[in-house]
Amino acid sequence: QYPAGGSSTNPFL
Amino acid sequence: NDMPWVVKPEEKMKFDSIFESLGPAGGMLTGDKVKPVLLNSKLPVDILGRVWELSDLDRDGMLDRDEFSVAMYLVYRALEGEPVPMSLPPPLVPPSKR
């Protein structure tokens, strides 16, 4: 769902 | 905890109607639906990132209508020149999530 690198749930990071 | 929520009922109605207009699925808006709305504020992306951090209380990458209201509240206050806090003050936590 989020771009690579992402365990982040923040779409702005 | 019966502290009143800082999001006033009139404001909540406005935020709820924006929420509905974005087409929530299962009562939730995903990051890719909320992101363009917040970007529209023209606030710096690092500020918007903090707004998201403070709003997505359960860290699931989606906002329900109360979390979305927190995000919109912070964006509107930021546009009025108020700094976005580093952590969410208790009166800003939706009563449903205390």
The profile of the biggest β sheet of chain A is: none
Distance between the termini of chain A: 13 Å
Structural class of the secondary elements of chain A?
little secondary structure
Categorize the overall geometry of chain A. globular
Number of helices of chain B: 4
Mean pLDDT across every amino acid position of chain B: 96
What's the helical proportion of residues of chain A? Answer: under 10%
Shape of chain B: globular
Low-confidence stretches of chain A: 1-6
Strand content of chain B: under 5%
Tally of individual helices of chain A? 0
Oligomer: heterodimer
What helical percentage do the residues of chain B reach? 40-55%
Secondary-structure element series of chain B:
HEHHEH
Largest protein interface? A-B, 7 and 16 residues
Number of strands of chain B: 2
How would you state the average pLDDT of chain A, rounded? 67
